[in-house]
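Request: Mind sharing a record?
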Amino acid sequence: MISQHGPFVSHQANVDASGQNIIGDAANECAISVDPTNTSKMTIGWRQFNNVASNFRQGGWGYTTDGGTTWTFPGVLEDNVFRSDPVTNSDETGTFFYLSLLQTFCENMYQSSNGGQSWTELQADGLAEGGDKQWFTIDKTNGPGHGFQYQSSDGINCSGNGVQFQRSTDGGVTWQAPIVIPNEPTDGTLDVDTNGNLFIGGEGFSPFYCVRSSNAQFGDQTPVFDQITQVDMGGELSGGGINPAGLDGMLFLAIDHSGGPTNNNIYMLASVAPSGRTTTDVMFVRSTDGGATFSAPIKVNDDPINPNKWHWFGTFSVAPNGRLDAVWYDTRNAANNTDSQLFYSFSTDAGVTWSPNVSVSNAFNPFEGYPNQSKIGDYITMVSDETGGNVAYSATFNVNTNTGQHEEDVYYVRVSPTGGPTPTPSPTPTPTSTPTPTPTVTPTPTVTPTGTPTPTPSVTPTPRATPRPRPTPRPRPDTAVITLRRDAR
């Protein structure tokens, strides 16, 4: 499927060997990464449902070598193994990493040195520790933490309780014992400033927080969090509603690495439900003092406030030149208040002002094509470069003639301040190498998804309420009890 909307062209990523749609599957919750040494090479990880009648999903992925015009879907990370919550990233040398959650709430880290064409598992299943709604980042500075990987997860973990942080000092092969993060910022992301300081943003089950560790970059020290800042995002994260069994958005934190006047600014963006509302707006804040204080929240979606309209799955990234790019799903043009389009806005003044919003996709019905789990994932992602942004998102443009409904698929679209797709530049820096891991298991999977996997699917989640309740310790894998926080998977 190629979906044209004005100058913006969305290309489907979860396609068969002929580049055609796979009838009857579903793909959502997509995470994109770009090779900074050759930005025509990208990879997207997603949750792959081979049969929408089942809640069973696997770790799907696709790659492109031509800037997103064509995509190859080789298969899943590990055939017939339940996986969820895909997160991808790339280091400065163009090595890709893929963090994947197992049904046990433990994880694996995978690595690709060939542009996402194949993946190497860096440890046996589950030995990357972690937990639900995990996220990770890579230290790309030239400081002592160069190449370190950091991850956080919510209160339902592989081991222990609390919102946890973990560090790998050997490129994702081994992970140190988890540390509980103060004030429990969850459903969020991490980044590292140019001085090597680590920042984690998330919602502490009501207020948002930005926490800092200035010593995580020192491998011989136990990381401590030495700065905790409460942040007003203008509302709270929500779940359900337009995304019945999932989140309506996560908190995204990113740091400016431009080297200019805005260098090391810390930015946070999320789709939140303002007080008294059940629908969401895209809200943004910034810190210019290393996370000690944050600005008042700014609404990025520029349509008039309307309690019937949704602006959900907001995400953003910071370009190398300091420009901010943001995208989200938006129902402003829908008479039924639920059909959604991908919208885009950018800022060239550190988020003080945002450009007029533009729709960059055709409208789609987010309620069709559900797998057994009734949601279209929990997030979408983007990566920016000097001239624009590379976006991975899920939509329901394709029709499954067997069911008479549209189906969920993963798409790539290029957005740009010039109003349409521009050629993706291909810089060729000579970066400093990251540590070369020595994996314990080295499969190179190229399995093409076929049929319905045989493992027993997990219990269908129940949508969580708004506001979200505090998590309870997760049940062990042999129990049928499902906590509300498990819905996030």
The mean pLDDT is 88. The chain has no helices and 31 strands. The two ends are 27 Å apart (CA to CA).
